[in-house]
């Protein structure tokens, strides 16, 4: 549906910018376009189209939102640093530092310095949010970039479609919602829905099209009735009808466990008036015409959403008991509802403002969530923790509560009085001893509801927060402030805990502390994770900001650089000694060339099975580790210590079973796990372990551990698993 959107040209961009702002620097935009076109040259997109088409479409999306010419230029140039020889300094000299910094904000970091793709991805998110904190327009460019990429997603492979769609649903659509840019949010969600759930998407589209005319007639009749009554009451308003977005329909079907035929409010009416007074007057008009549905009225004018959204929402009962929704707002509110924070840069001449001057400012409180995001991310060295917290923060629904003075506080749904206390001030949270909810003493871990009035009881004698609080709180603000307290006040305790954790890790890998913990080796970890001293590193480990495993892995990298020239003969001698320690022959089914009965372990990072091409790696004091030839960890082993590789092969006459970890990705449904297990049971494969989970997007991930005799048996099982209904990907876990 969105894929059929007409491609725009640089002339379209200029025309749109002129319409929004007659004083815009058109020559600057043209110069940016010509520069980008020259530098991208013969580069092509996956669609086979010239690459310049992409930045042009991104720039038009932003021009349509009313962004200034500097942002338009940055959009046209946003890929030149990443994909051509152009540097940040070049853009500063040729255009401006303002434009160059925006381009830098959306340019991906080099992956060379990161341990994994995930870590590189997370660091790119960190970079984007930091740039966003300096200039909010960075995220506007990124959202427009993602939108055009989603519009052209059909040219990518299925696995890339799924990955991009999931990232869009988990990060970019919620981010657009946080920014209040609903015009982008809805399209991002619908496109993500299309590629994650293609069958469900198709069924909803076909179902809506079947009764489209019938529903439009229903809405047209109501629209005319309301228009007549508004005129009688001398209320100047514009009435429009719109279809509900596909993903919102899908969510409602899932939430209410109903079919498309059972959802009647697929279309909504929007009434746009000139003043707040007219909003409530129009509400009175529609409530006189139609019976309102109990519990379905929301006043976002009196209590705006954190993303600046304001409107009156009411659900009414029409003919034949058919419900429909009406939204009522002013022109200013409508402008902000469509464009969110982008409205800050929309020009005063905007036609949709009917010649009225815009009066929109982005105050600090509107971006409080961003400041908090930037604050709590500073202390998170663990990439997965950062990513999970970020997604949670963006996805949270809100609960609205009141202070004793009647001021509104907006908190994540599921928040407690602890969250409320820390939202006011850190010291109030630290000295909290109890609370009253609606004038009644209640436990401080009580989940808050909309409309609750909260009073916090404090004491100067309070000992500070409890670690148990972290189990109950929801807001990142509270978590950040509590963790900061423990970090500051329990530093010595954290240092000792960190030392103990690192010592355990050193013993676990069979290394010697004195040999490993030399300043030259430690410095690599300190630099990589931005610690000033070794005590800071210990404290971070004890505090839980980073794992001891990551610290030791970085120190080992430096250690290996120094010891890469060690004589392999010495390693052979070490293995010979290992042979004396281990009298039992290896049960792995692997033979080490030139050595009998040494300790042999199948590497857990790639789980090799007979039939796989394999390579042996002589470990320090733990025999030979066997890897698949395509193991992602071998590259580092080759580069750092290639003289420790040794030939290994499978002993074909030996009958053994091998454990293999398998990941299955599917659209969640009833009976999915039963069908997967049935495939295992009907083969001669042994099921060792199984776990399954589903996320908010109804994507089910099933992890299996099975025992097979060889690669042939494994491939047969994987093939049969791919045939299970709803399964879209099956792979060996690496």
What report would you give on this structure?
This protein is of the alpha+beta class and 734 residues long. The chain has 6 domains: 2-196, Hypothetical protein af1432, CATH 1.10.3210; 206-353, Beta Polymerase, domain 2 (2-Layer Sandwich), CATH 3.30.460; 396-489, Ubiquitin-like (UB roll), CATH 3.10.20.30; 491-563, no CATH class; 568-650, no CATH class; 658-732, 2-Layer Sandwich (Alpha-Beta Plaits). Strands 1, 2, 3, 4, 5 and 6 form a 6-stranded mixed sheet that branches. A hairpin with a 5-residue loop joins strand 5 (312-317) and strand 6. The chain starts with 9 loop residues before the first helix and ends with a strand.
Helix percentage range: 40-55%
Tally of individual domains: 6
Question: How would you sum up the major sheet?
Answer: 6 strands, mixed
Q: What is the molecular shape? A: globular
CATH class of the largest domain: Mainly Alpha
């Amino acid at each position: 549906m969105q894929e059929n959107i007409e491609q725009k040209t640089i002339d379209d961009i200029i025309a749109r910018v002129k319409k929004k702002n007659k004083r815009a620097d058109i020559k600057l935009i043209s110069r940016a376009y010509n520069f980008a076109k020259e530098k991208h040259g013969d580069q092509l997109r996956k669609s086979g189209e010239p690459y310049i088409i992409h930045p042009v479409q991104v720039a038009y999306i932003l021009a349509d939102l009313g962004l200034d010419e500097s942002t338009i230029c940055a959009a046209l140039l946003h890929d030149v640093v990443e994909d051509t020889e152009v540097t940040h300094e070049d853009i500063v000299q040729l255009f401006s530092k303002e434009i160059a910094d925006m381009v830098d904000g959306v340019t991906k970091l080099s992956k060379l310095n990161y341990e994994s793709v995930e870590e590189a991805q997370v660091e790119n998110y960190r970079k984007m949010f930091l740039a966003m904190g300096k200039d909010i327009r960075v995220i506007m460019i990124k959202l427009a970039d993602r939108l055009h990429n989603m519009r052209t997603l059909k040219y990518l492979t299925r696995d890339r479609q799924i990955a991009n769609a999931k990232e869009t649903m988990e990060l970019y659509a919620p981010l657009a919602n946080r920014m209040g840019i609903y015009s982008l949010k809805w399209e991002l969600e619908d496109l993500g829905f299309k590629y994650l759930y293609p069958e469900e998407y198709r069924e909803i589209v076909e179902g809506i099209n079947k009764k489209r005319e019938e529903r439009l007639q229903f809405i047209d009749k109501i629209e005319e009735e309301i228009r007549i009554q508004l005129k009688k009451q001398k209320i100047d308003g514009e009435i429009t009808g719109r279809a509900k977005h596909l993903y919102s329909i899908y969510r409602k079907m899932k939430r209410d466990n109903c079919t498309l035929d059972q959802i009647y409010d697929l279309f909504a009416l929007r009434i746009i008036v000139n003043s707040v007074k007219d909003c409530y007057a129009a509400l009175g008009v529609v409530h006189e015409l139609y019976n309102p549905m109990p519990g379905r009225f929301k006043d976002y004018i009196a209590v705006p959403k954190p993303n600046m959204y304001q409107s009156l929402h009411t659900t009414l009962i029409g003919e034949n008991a058919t419900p429909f929704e009406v939204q009522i707002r002013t022109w200013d509110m409508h402008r902000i509802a469509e464009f969110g924070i982008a409205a800050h840069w929309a020009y005063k001449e905007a036609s949709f403002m009917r010649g009225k001057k815009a009066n929109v400012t982005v105050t600090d409180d509107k971006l409080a969530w961003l400041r908090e995001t930037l604050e709590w991310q500073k202390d998170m060295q663990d990439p997965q923790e950062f990513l999970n917290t970020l997604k949670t923060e963006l996805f949270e629904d809100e609960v609205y509560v009141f202070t004793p003075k009647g001021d509104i506080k907006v908190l994540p749904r599921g928040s407690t009085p602890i969250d409320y206390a820390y939202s006011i001030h850190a010291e109030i949270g630290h000295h909290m001893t109890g609370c009253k909810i609606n004038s009644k003493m209640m436990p401080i871990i009580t989940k808050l509801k909309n409309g609750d009035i909260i009073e916090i009881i404090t004491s100067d004698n309070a000992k500070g927060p409890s670690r148990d609080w972290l189990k109950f709180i929801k807001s990142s603000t509270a978590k950040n402030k509590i963790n900061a307290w423990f970090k500051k006040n329990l530093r010595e305790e954290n240092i000792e805990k960190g030392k103990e954790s690192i010592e355990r890790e050193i013993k676990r890998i069979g290394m010697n502390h004195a040999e490993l913990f030399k300043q030259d080796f430690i410095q690599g970890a300190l630099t990589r994770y931005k610690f000033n001293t070794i005590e800071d590193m210990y404290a971070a480990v004890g505090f839980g900001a980073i794992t001891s495993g990551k610290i030791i892995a970085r120190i080992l990298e430096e250690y290996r650089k120094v010891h890469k020239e060690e004589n392999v003969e010495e390693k052979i001698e070490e293995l010979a000694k290992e042979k004396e320690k281990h009298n039992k022959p290896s049960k792995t089914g692997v033979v080490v060339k030139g050595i009998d009965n040494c300790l042999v372990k199948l590497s857990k990072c790639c789980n090799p099975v007979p039939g796989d091409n394999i390579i042996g790696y002589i470990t320090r004091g733990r025999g030979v580790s066997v890897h698949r030839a395509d193991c992602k960890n071998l590259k580092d082993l080759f580069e750092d210590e290639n003289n420790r590789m040794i030939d290994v092969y499978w002993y074909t006459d030996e009958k053994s079973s091998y454990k293999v970890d398998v990941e299955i990705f599917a659209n969640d449904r009833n009976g999915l796990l039963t069908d997967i297990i049935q495939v295992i049971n009907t083969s001669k494969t042994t099921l060792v372990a199984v776990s399954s989970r589903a996320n908010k997007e109804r994507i089910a991930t099933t992890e299996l551990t099975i025992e097979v005799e060889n690669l042939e048996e494994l491939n047969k099982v994987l093939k049969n698993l791919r045939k299970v209904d709803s399964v879209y990907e099956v792979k060996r876990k690496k």
